């Protein structure tokens, strides 16, 4: 960890700061919000950013600053949970396919490629719309469209790693296939999976916000960044309603991408040895 933090990559360190800051905000948001994010005050509609309301108010007189802070809990959690589920499903599926190989591998990967053949966002919209608008259904839709990416990556890593000498030695010593896969292969593949997962957290937050923007994710009055941007689109004259949640989405996604790029550079032996 110390070697990782000693990297000269400024963007990597900036990404860590941004991500940690947003995670802390999400954890303590209920304790630091200046006003109730659900409280409506029709006499305070469309107030511009100022002392009373740091980021202004929306069409229902709700404090935008409080809603951005509370919205981080939904958006970040949805992104992280989606990536965690997809990495587990994809790792198991791709690991089994790559280790067994042959006809079973071909069948399993053709099924994964069938899902990948559809445009990801369009497929997520169709699934979320068919299941009904909710946070759970949006996360499920994103999981369905993303797990094949991890399955393909894990399969390729397993095919490469299972030919190594230490794997052959484990087989000679009588280790079971399950032990070889779980104890020998998966730990050596975690680096690449971690890089991909870190990069996907930002994409998951953007996708979830996009589904909420379209009314397929979080439902009113729950504060969430994507739905807040949607509210602002309906009131374009009041720029602050959509601008600040949009900045929140951008900052968190770009921070996660900076961290992912830094991890990729750190784990790449060609760059690491320079």
Provide structural commentary.
- This protein has 274 residues and is mostly helical.
- The chain is built from eleven helices and no strands.
- Helix 3 (64-100) packs parallel to helix 6 (135-161), helix 3 packs antiparallel against helix 8 (177-213) and helix 7 crosses helix 8 (177-213).
- The longest helix is centred in the first third of the chain and has 37 residues, at 64-100.
- The radius of gyration is 22 Å and the shape is elongated.
- The mean pLDDT is 88.
Question: Which labels suit this protein?
Answer:
74% helix; 274 residues; elongated; mainly alpha; 11 helices
Distance from N terminus to C terminus (CA atoms, Å) equals 19 Å
Helix percent band: over 70%
Number of helices: 11
**Average pLDDT:** 88
Shape: elongated
Major β-sheet profile: none
Poorly predicted tracts of residues: none
Secondary-structure content class: mainly alpha
Helix and strand succession? HHHHHHHHHHH
- Write down the Rg: 22 Å
Share of residues in strands: under 5%
Count every beta strand, where a strand is a DSSP E run of 2 or more residues. 0
Short account of what is shown:
By secondary structure, the chain is mainly α.
Question: How do the strands and helices of this protein lay out in sequence?
Answer:
Elements: H1 2-5, H2 10-32, H3 64-100, H4 102-116, H5 120-131, H6 135-161, H7 165-172, H8 177-213, H9 225-233, H10 240-267, H11 269-272
Helix pairs in contact: 2-3, 2-10, 3-4, 3-6, 3-8, 3-10, 4-6, 5-6, 6-8, 7-8, 8-9, 8-10, 9-10
